[in-house]
Amino acid sequence: MPGVKTLLYVSDALERTPGRDLQDFITGLCPAGDRFRSLQPVEELSTAFHELTRHANANRVTIYALQTSGLRSTFLSTAEQASVDFLGANPFNSSIREAERDGLAVLADETGGRAIFNRNQFGGELAQIVDEMASYYSLAYRPPHGGDRGEHQIRVRVRGRKLQVRHRRGYRDKSSDLRLSEQLDGALYLGLVENPLGVRLGAGRVRAAGGGKRRLPLHVMVPAARVAFLPVEDKEMAQIRVLVASRHAATSKVVRDDRTFQVEAPPDRETRLLDLVLGVDIPDGLNMVAVGVRDDATRETAFVSTTLAVGEEAGNGR
Fold it and tell me: What is the distance of C-alpha 103 from the center of its chain?
């Protein structure tokens, strides 16, 4: 989905290093026990959090994290607190409070959002988030490393010591193939179509393929005038990549196909439609079909979608 998106993440806690608070409690309970100091947390999730936030940033998703546990003086109840204070419960309370908030803070800070703690009511905070969604600045630039799939940091500086800035801290660049695949999913699930190539779809005669499926000859028709033909020896050729994804309406099962066509320039290229045919196996019933087309020479892409009903119920098996 294009554009800026806001994700509201609501949870009592999100630990980046589960088990760290328990480790702190044990070492506080038995400060002389050196063997407890070597205890390792259950799992270290910092890398996973980093990958998640970089993926969110690449898709222009800003995360606001709300901790719903509300205001608390301590983690332990009053009766429990009275009986274990001398065993180091106060440091444990501090440790568990920090652990619960750590992951929430990382998600928000790294994606340019905010983490909200110590609130029993969120009406004012939610209203402020709505205001921020409508009053941000967009800064755009073209990175020189486009499509290298690497990790890249973002730094934003402003004049004025009193000014504060929240922004995405970095992102993971996408390859052109990944962008193409994700845009195809946008067309399949959200109906997001864009058709600068003037692509048209057609279907041939459907035949039984076994296993409750039908073989659909899918005709992807592209105006030759909108495709770049490059000299190859004594010919002019175009390379066109076609991706197809179909989703069954009842089962949500997705079938995909991907093919690259080498096409010679026709003599009447100004009026000719290039007919690219793929045989796609889809199950009986109603299917949503999305098609992505890319001219590999110009990197121009188009996405179209439609619905197809196949099987006896669709009318004579067509």
Answer: 19
Amino acid at 121: Q
Residue type, 56: A
CA distance 177 to 175: 5
Could you tell me the pLDDT band of residue 214, with boundaries at 50, 70 and 90? Answer: confident
Q: What is the pLDDT of residue 313?
A: 54
Evaluate if residue 33 carries a pLDDT over 60. Answer: no
Other residues' Cβ atoms within 10 Å of the Cβ of residue 79: 7
Answer yes or no: is pLDDT of 263 > 50. Answer: yes
Q: Which of 297, 307, 257 is nearest to 277 (CA)?
A: 257
**Among 230, 243, 234, residue whose Cα is nearest residue 276:** 243
Q: What length does the chain have?
A: 318
Model confidence over 294-308: pLDDT tens digits? 999 999 999 999 998
Residue keyed to tokens 């959090």: 49
Residue 226's domain comprises 176-314
Q: What is the CATH number of the domain that holds 192?
A: 2.60.40.10
Q: What is the pLDDT of residue 245?
A: 95
- Residues 6 or more apart whose CB falls under 8 angstroms from that of 306 comprise 201, 288, 289
* The predicted structure's pLDDT at residue 75: 52
Is 109 a member of any domain? yes
Note the pLDDT of residue 91. 61
User: Which among 218, 189, 196, 193 is positioned nearest to 206, based on CA atoms?
Assistant: 218
Tally of domains within the chain: 2
Q: Is residue 219 located within the same domain as residue 309?
A: yes
C-alpha 84/C-alpha 74 separation (Å) is: 13
Q: Which of 225, 230, 174 is nearest to 196 (CA)?
A: 225
